[in-house]
Automatic annotation (TrEMBL):
Protein's name in the database: Potassium voltage-gated channel subfamily A regulatory beta subunit 1b
Family, per entry: Belongs to the shaker potassium channel beta subunit family.
Coiled coil (residue ranges): none
PANTHER family per the UniProt record, alphabetical: HYPERKINETIC, ISOFORM M (PTHR43150), VOLTAGE-GATED POTASSIUM CHANNEL SUBUNIT BETA-1 (PTHR43150:SF10)
Residues in NADP-dependent oxidoreductase domain copies: 134-321
Keyword field contains Cytoplasm: yes
Keyword field: Cytoplasm, Ion transport, NADP, Oxidoreductase, Potassium, Potassium transport, Transport
Chain spans, region Disordered: 1-31
Bias kind Polar residues: ranges: 18-30
Cellular location(s): Cytoplasm
Keyword Oxidoreductase tagged: yes
Length: 334
């Protein structure tokens, strides 16, 4: 089971905010961790919904952190445009991230189920269809009605499956999904750019994209082969190594070298450009990131400042380098 949860600023203070009631000087790190543990009271902190932010408000910016927030699909839930899928959650929260994603498969045997400390999960994402769709929709509706979740979404479902789930919900007066988790990066574009936008406009399903750096391929670490300390060198990631050293993988590395020049022009790193490029897509509610160090997290969060720099001219230059811009059926009619 894959679970995503979000927390709002209602009743929660970050370390940059002064605490007038506390006259002592606690350790900043301990204080930050203590504040983040209050996410366990997430049921109290879900106040920033449609009542406070009208659903037509597509994006807002946090005053303290500069983090941008968007509606999850056409629901009333406001999530940070960047979400963290692994650890370093306290640092992320201190920088305005309010969307966290967990699943048993993350980090293998070392995975820590973050949701143990959460009273109410916000969004349950169903990854694998092991039963018929009506049963899934009924189960998710039950979870929401019992207070176990606020919304539910899908992960790696086809547009047809999502539409079928929506039809089942309408037919039996059940609750439909509000988002789809989909892979989206420089080399994986069609589903998010062609298939899902139609679902957003028809039934309000938003996109939470994942793997913006293509499992590390876009970081530039594989320019000169596969380093021994990299993920691709691990036995369980043999498939990634084969992908990198393949003919297509080498072509991708050539394109990434060209894109690094674009990043230099914008005074940012290649990973920042990649994340900002994903966020530039108006159909993407949030981008899930996985980081293994504070330095990586800080660098990725800097992508927010790069978004305004990706002008139509820069976007066109990126498309020209990639040479893989997908076209919808409407494009062929013009």
């Amino acid at each position: 089971m894959q679970v995503s949860f979000a927390c709002t600023d209602h009743g929660l203070k970050r370390s940059s905010e002064p605490n007038k009631q506390n006259t002592s000087s606690p350790n900043p790190t301990s204080a930050a961790r203590a504040r983040f543990r209050t996410v366990a009271l997430i049921a109290r902190s879900l106040g920033t919904f449609t009542h406070r932010h009208h659903i037509s408000l597509k994006e807002s910016t946090g005053k303290l952190t500069g983090m941008k927030y968007r509606n999850l699909g056409k629901s009333g839930l406001r999530v940070s445009c960047l979400g963290l899928a692994e650890q370093l959650m306290t640092i992320a929260y201190e920088n305005g991230v309010n969307l966290f994603d967990t699943a048993e498969v993350y980090a293998g045997d070392d995975c820590v189920c973050v949701c143990v400390c959460v009273c109410v999960c916000v969004c349950v994402c169903v990854c694998v269809c092991v039963c018929v769709l009506p049963e899934i929709v009924r189960a998710m509706t039950y979870a929401i009605n019992q207070g176990m979740a606020m919304y539910w979404g899908t992960s790696r479902w086809s547009a047809m499956e999502i539409m079928e789930a929506y039809s089942v919900a309408r037919q039996f007066n059940l609750i439909p999904p509000v988002c789809e988790q989909a892979e989206y990066h420089f080399f994986q574009r069609e589903k998010v750019e062609v298939q899902l936008p139609e679902l957003y406009h028809k039934i309000g399903v938003g996109v939470v994209s994942w793997s913006p750096l293509a499992c590390g391929i876009i970081t530039g670490k594989y320019d000169n082969g596969v380093p021994e300390s990299s993920r691709a060198a691990m036995k369980s990631y043999q498939w990634l190594k084969e992908k990198i050293v393949s003919e297509d993988g080498q072509k991708q590395q050539t394109k990434l070298k060209e894109l690094s020049h674009v990043a230099e022009k914008l005074s940012c790193s290649l990973p920042q450009l990649a994340v900002a490029w994903c966020l530039r897509n108006e159909g993407v509610s949030s981008v899930l990131m996985g980081t293994s160090s504070p330095a990586q997290l800080t660098e990725n969060l800097g992508a927010i400042q790069v978004i305004p720099k990706i002008t139509p001219q820069i976007a066109s230059e990126i498309d020209k380098i990639l040479g893989n811009k997908p076209h919808s059926k409407k494009d062929y009619h013009h």
